[in-house]
Hints:
By secondary structure, the protein is mainly alpha-helical. The protein has helices at residues 5-37, 41-69, 71-90, 95-123, 127-158, 163-166, 168-182, 199-222, 227-249, 263-293, 298-305, 307-326, 329-347, 355-383, 389-418, 420-442, 449-457. Helix 3 (71-90) packs antiparallel against helix 7 (168-182) and helix 13 (329-347) runs antiparallel to helix 16 (420-442).
Amino acid sequence: xxxxxAVALIASSLAFSLVLLDATVVNVALPAIRDxxxxxxxxxxxxxxxxxxxxxxxxxxxxxxxxxxxxxxxxLAGAGLFTVASAAAALAPSVVALVAAQVVLGVGAAALIxxxxxxxxxxxxDPGPRARAVGxxxxxxxxxxxxxxxxxxxxxxxxxxxxIFAVNLPFxxxxxxxxLRGVEAAPAPAPATARGVDAPGQVTAVVALAALTFAxxxxxxxGWSAPVVQAALAVALLAGAAFVxxxxxxxxxxxxxSLFSERAFNASAxxxxxxxxxxxxxxxxVSLYLQDVRGLSALExxxxxxxxxxVFALAGVPSGRLVARFGPRVPMMAGGVLAAGGALVLxxxxxxxxxxxxxxxxxxFGAGAGSVIPAMTTAVVxxxxxxxxxxxxxALNASRQTGGVLGIAVLGGLVADGGFMPGxxxxxxxxxxxxxxxxLLATRVGGPAPVRAAAEAA
Length: 458
């Protein structure tokens, strides 16, 4: 079957949209889930982080499998798993069952992210058109981020929080149909380059990240001196050290250390962690703030939150064009500064802050994050050989999702320790500092010459 680039772009964007949609709608639904299932703050953190934790810890293996079996097969597997897990989440009778379903959803998402980018890079082999396609991929996928809060509010007010998971089903079915009809299967890799799953590396990665997340979330409730928290930190440290040792010696490591010889890759991966650290925590906290502090309904919260995802979605198009012409440095640097400014504006939001102040902070945050993500994605894609695009994109997104897990665990815990409003303001200050770190990292990312040349020749 001959592939069709336009269909491949739609399929890859919709697949990535599934990943964003689940994270966005769950944040709006947290108060409803809390009231229905009797969850506390730490349990709500687990509802969000179970998905992100599975996603972050499995992305590297999913990237290796994407390189080995092709984006088409991985997209079909991920969308199928997403369908089953969404139905389970919609029917979950308890917080434990919901967290378990969120874990399986994270596994499906882990398959979809590298698959979506692998499909895109194969459909657009020339650097210039590929850079513009990546911008459209990020922008159109962010439409789910924009629609998510309002869609969640509508569904929660009309049906209940369970409907936010049922809504995944038609989107997953559309991904499967588009991939089957418009995406060409990738040729099998040469035996010398074929990569399988690094089981020891995968196990130690899951253990390290899960133990660290447990310690960070439960430390706020049980206290940092609690034996179980200190034991979890020790397990995380030992598992992390074991992971590095295994990857150094593995014949086919899940995270090839050779990737870190490229400066652009290192800077982009670090920037991905920092921007998600701030962004995921901000979404978690602002969603609770709008409903618990300002007393908005789920639907009102969706509309109130709308300026951020809309600007986020719109920022991807000019960012992709700037990257195609000048390289990723300028959009990454400007985006980090804008997002930090948005976080600082939100620090000034008290219980009765005028809505215009919230709009300004949300819009600045969204514009900055929406500028950074396409730029750093292109920097990673252009810094590695075509055969390693899957694993490199997976490494970037693993870094991003790990940042999200840590952001919700660390910054989300501040609202439980010292009261909601002081905790939220402290978290936003920390987030602003990390976003300025993104701007500093951008100085280490250049402008890929093939992208600039292709853009200038177009």
